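Build the 3D complex.
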Amino acid sequence: MCGIVGYFNKTGAENPPLGKILLCMLNALACRGPDSAGVALFGTPRTNQLIARVKLGNNGGSAERTRKIESLARRFGAQEFAQNGAYLRFTFQENSDLTPFLSSIESAAPDVEVVSVGRRLEIVKQVGSPSRLEQSFCISGFQGGHGIGHTRLSTESVVDLSHSQPFWGHGYSDLAIVHNGHITNYHQLRRRYQEHGVRFYTENDSEVVAIFLADKLRQGVTLRAALESMITDLDGSFSCLVATESALALVKDPFSFKPLLYTETPGFVAVATEEIAIRAAIPGDYNVREAQAKEVQVWQR
Amino acid sequence: MAEIDAAGRSTREVNAAIRKLIAEAGTDITVLNPGARHNLAVAILSGVRIRIAGSAGYYCGGLGDGASIEIEGSAGWGLAESMLSGTIRVHGGAGSGTAAALRNGTVVVHGDAAARLGVSMKGGEVIVAGNCGYMAGFMAQKGTLIVCGDAGEAFADSMYATVCYVGGKIASLGTDAVLSPMDPGDSERLDATLSAYLPAELRRTKPAAADFKKVVAGRKLWNFDNREWRIWREAL
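Done.
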C-alpha cells in the first residue's frame, strides 16, 4: 500500500496553496497507510541561502543539544533558528559542497540527521496520519509552486521519523522523492554506495531511490535520464514521484505493480496513487489517466 | 430517471441507494459527484442503466450481471472485473486490470487502458479506442479483445482461444501469441462491432477494420510435450 501525491503549479504564481492541496490529497489516501506521513514543499527560492531542517534526535533532542547544533550551524552562517517538535529549522550560507556542513551538524550526536537542505525544499514528516502532520506543523498554510507527499504503510522497516517519507537525496540540495512499492535489489545497491562512503540513515528500501537519483544528478545526468536508468537498475515495484528545485517527475516500474495516476491541465499537474485524492483536492473538469509501465514524465519550470 | 448524490455519503450508502431504486422503481439512475471513489455499482444483477457523472475508482461494475453502466470520467483498477453480462462504457481512460476475468458482456473504453487489460477473460468483448498497456490478454480464454491504438509489450501472452485485434503497433507479442491473417469474415465482424459500440466521431479516427492485425494463440502451450521443454522454460 502507501499513498503518494504530487502537485505542480504551471502558472508561475508565487503563492499557490501548496500545503492545503497536498494535505487534502494525503487525507484522501490516509486509509492506504496510517503509519507516518510527510511532505516535501518547495516555496519561494532563497537567494544565496539554503534552508536546513534537522532532526534533533530520536527522542526529540534536548535544549543542550539544540544549542550545540546551533553553534555548529553558525560556523556556516546560520540564522533564523526555529524549533518545532523534533525539528530545528534554520537558513545558512549557500555552498555547492554540502559535505562539511552535513558532517559538522551530524557530529552533534549519532541520532541527529539533516532531513532536508535546499533553496526551496523543506521536508516535514513524522509518525502518524496526515491529519496529525497538520496538527503538528500546520502545513496547510504553506504556499509554494510544487511539492510531493507520502502516507506510509510500513512493510519492511521500523516506524519512526527517519524511516518516514519523503526522502531527501542526502547531500544534493532540493531533491526529494516519495516511493510506493518495494525495491528488491535494495541491499545490493546499498552495499555498492556504502563502499563509496555513502551513509544510510535507515533500513528503508526507499532511501536508496533518493541516493540513486542524487548520485546520477551529481554525475550531470538529466533528471529524465536518471529516472530512465531507475527502470533498468532497480528491481521490484516502484511508483515514484521526484521533485527538484524546478521540476516534478514520475516514474513507474516495468511491471506497473503499483497504481499512479496524473492529470495535466494548462494550469497545473496533479499526481496521486488514486484518482480520489486528485478529485478531493482540486475541483473542476479535467481528465485523469493512469501512467503506463516504464512511463517517465518530467514537468519542468 | 432518478439521481443519487454521492457527495457526503459513504460508498455503502450509495450502492444501497442504487439497489433500493432498482427494487422500487427500476428506472435509469444517475450517480452525481462520484469523486472517483471505489466499488461503485458493484454486483448489480439487473438490466438497469446507471450513469456515473464523473470518474469512478477501483472495481466499478465488477461482478455485475446485466446492468448498462456509463462512466463519464475515467475509471480506476479492475473496471468490470468478473462481469457476467451487461455493458460498461468509460469516456476517459481505464486503469490496470480492466475487464480481468470478464465472463461475458461488453466493456468499451474511449481512452487508453493501463496494464493487464482483459487478463484471463473468459468471454465477452473488450473494446479500447486508445492504446493499452503491457500484458493485455494474458491467459485469456474466450471472447474478443479489440485495441484500436497501440498495444504494449507481451501482448496476448499464453492465451487460449481469445481472438485479439489491434489497429496500431504491437510493442511485442507474448509467448505463444501469433499474428493470423485477417479474413473477410474477421473484417466484417470487427467493423460491425466497432460501428455498434464506438461513437461515430471516435470510429472515424480509427483504422479501417481490414487494416487491423489479428492475434491468436499459437497453441504451442496448449499441451505439454517434454520435447518442447525450451518453449515451456521461456513461458514459465
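Residues 61 and 86 of chain A are 7 Å apart (CA to CA).
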